[in-house]
Amino acid sequence: MPAGTIAASITARLIQHAVASGASQTELLAKVGWPSPAAPNPDARVILQVHWGVWQYIHEQGAPDDFGLAFGESLALDHLGVLGMLMAHSATVEVAMMQQTRFQRLLLDTPFKVTRLEPDKLVIEHPLLAVAARMPHMIVAGLAFWITLFRSLTQAPVDALCVHLPHPPLASLERYRATFGTSPRFNAQRILLEIDRAWWSAPVRAPSLGVESYLRARATSLLGQLPARGERLDAVRGYIADELRHGRRPTLVGAAKRVNTSTRTLQRNLSGAAMSYDRLLDETRQGLSLEYLRDDRLTIGEVAVVLGYSEPATFYRAFKRWTGVPPGVYRSTWF
Questions:
Q1: Cα angle 166-171-177, degrees, rounded to a multiple of 5
Q2: Three-class SS of residue 126?
Q3: Distance of alpha carbon 331 from alpha carbon 319, whole angstroms
Q4: Which residues, other chains included, contact 8 with Cβ-Cβ below 8 Å and sequence gap of 6+?
Q5: What are the residues facing 126 on neighbouring strands?
Q6: Do residues 68 and 141 touch, judged by C-beta distance below 8 A?
Q7: Using CB atoms within 10 A as the burial measure, which of 39, 77, 80, 131 is most buried?
Q8: Please, what is the Cα angle at 220 between 153 and 282, to 5 degrees?
């Protein structure tokens, strides 16, 4: 059985969904050792075996027939936090799925899917783990999440070509067709979802998400607090914050284009202010990191991503250089 953890926010949402469906909140919280349905802190993780225990309990207690389908459909892009925002800002479904693969650790640090392209279809396949038989609602929820995600990204009626599930039907065939657009193959030896390959290159048309508005507001607040460095360099800081928020790498060339000047002129402006572009980038990242860590909207891993660090360890080192303490220690002084 693979080791790993999942973001506590996902487990918390599962518990809330189960309680709304009639499950015992007291017994579910005992499964994860929480005093309340909310995750203990923004950076909390849940061991996968514990998360699976919640799913097993839900199944054993007689969940509604369509519990897994409904839960998978309920996981909107906004519930994926920064990862959802990066996917929503991708040009195509292909780029969005690349973002999902790159940053899936924000939600789940053990990969449980294989995405592959075939001549006429895109296949999402999950491994057939031994524990799957005890958690059929979880298996259904996983595939329902994927088809819902493709629809959210494209804002189009994406239907599955084929769905394989390793257990008997839990809900009516009409309910499955409402979710997938087709009737699954039950008691199969695989867990997979297939859609037409044409969707792989489809443009992403997802609307702006709440997390983007939050990041924009926090960045605006920070930029208003930083010491003024002149209109042009302040605009460069704004450019840096915008690029970081969208998961892009801010460059000197891009900054010069933003302020309608040449890179050479911008470098002279920076030198005249006893500043370099790299130092301005570092200063902006430092300020944003402090701003984001002072509330619980983002996990530390998400903060690292929206500051342009591909690996959390790189952000940890930078933050300790700035403040003398790791980000978790700094955050603990606020919560």
A1: 85
A2: strand
A3: 12
A4: 39, 40, 44, 45, 46
A5: 191
A6: yes
A7: 80
A8: 95
pTM: 0.90
158 phi, psi to nearest 5 deg: -70, 125
Count CA within 13 A, CB hemisphere, residue 58: 31
Q: What is the C-alpha R_g of the chain? A: 22
Query: Do the beta carbons of residue 43 and residue 100 sit within 8 Å?
Result: no
In the structure encoding, which two tokens stand for residue 183, read together? 């009737």
Task: Look up residue 115 and give its DSSP letter.
Answer: E
Q: For residues 55 and 35, what is the distance between their CA atoms, to the nearest angstrom?
A: 19
Check: CB of residue 193 under 8 Å from CB of residue 69: no
Integer Cα distance of 160 and 183 in angstroms? 9
Say which residues have a Cβ less than 8 Å from residue 242's Cβ, sequence separation at least 6: 219
pLDDT digits (tens, 9 = 90+) for 32-69: 999 888 888 889 999 999 999 999 999 999 999 999 99
The CB density around residue 185, as the number of other CB atoms within 10 Å, is: 14
Give residue-wise pLDDT tens across range 138-148.
999 999 999 99
CA distance 80 to 169: 28
Closest C-alpha to 25, from 3, 49, 52, 54: 54
Residue 44, both tokens: 């909390």
8 A C-beta contact, residue 328 and residue 301: no
End-to-end CA distance of the chain: 35
- Report the Cα 175 to chain-centroid distance in Å: 27
Query: In the block, which residue shows the tokens 């189009």?
Result: 156
Q: Report the SS3 class of residue 181.
A: coil
Q: How is the chain split among helix, strand and coil, in percent rounded to 5?
A: 60, 10, 35
Q: What residue has token string 């297939």?
A: 194
Residue 1 has pLDDT above 60, yes or no: no
In 3D space, the residue among 297, 280, 289 whose CA is nearest the CA of residue 323 turns out to be 289
Give the type of residue at 256: A
Residue 107, token pair as written in the block: 């939600």
